[in-house]
Amino acid sequence: MYRGFDKSENTEKIKGKISRRKLLERTLSIIKPDGVEKKVVGEIISRFEKNGLNVVAMKRIKLSKADAEGFYAVHKERPFFGSLTDFMSRGPIVVMVLEGEGAIAKNREIMGATNPEEAAEGTIRKDFATNIEENTVHGSDAPETAAFEIGYFFNALEING
Ligand code: CMP
Question: Which of 9, 27, 84, 87 could form a disulfide with 140 if both were Cys (CB 3.0 to 4.6 A apart)?
Answer without folding.
Answer: 27
